[in-house]
Amino acid sequence: MNxxxxxxxxxxxxxxxxxxxxMINNEITDKFRISKSINIINSIYESSRTIxxxxxxxxxxxxxxxxxxxxxxxxMSELLDNEKVMFIDxxxxxxxxxxxxxxxxxxxxxxxxxxMKAK
Length: 119
Hints:
Elements: E1 11-16, E2 23-24, E3 27-28, H1 32-44, E4 48-54, H2 70-80, E5 85-88, H3 94-102, E6 107-110
């Protein structure tokens, strides 16, 4: 089986990752799942143009800001030392395209997909 890091030009990569981490009072209490995503980033960083993650957090039934992935993006950035993970408050469409096109970052995290009406 081919592995992603065996390829020399992956282009733009979209990864659906399990970043549903435990939180208490809106603070992450265990970064294990985030660290696994960092391993993925490190393995494909050089061979990809952009790396975009999508995930979910909790079980929201509305646009509760406590279920925003922005804290996850910040935690990913902390674990990556030299790379900023840009949070995009959208899951698809022109807002995502423009944000990726206009940012200097290479790594992005989209808004939680559970907040979409038609997932």
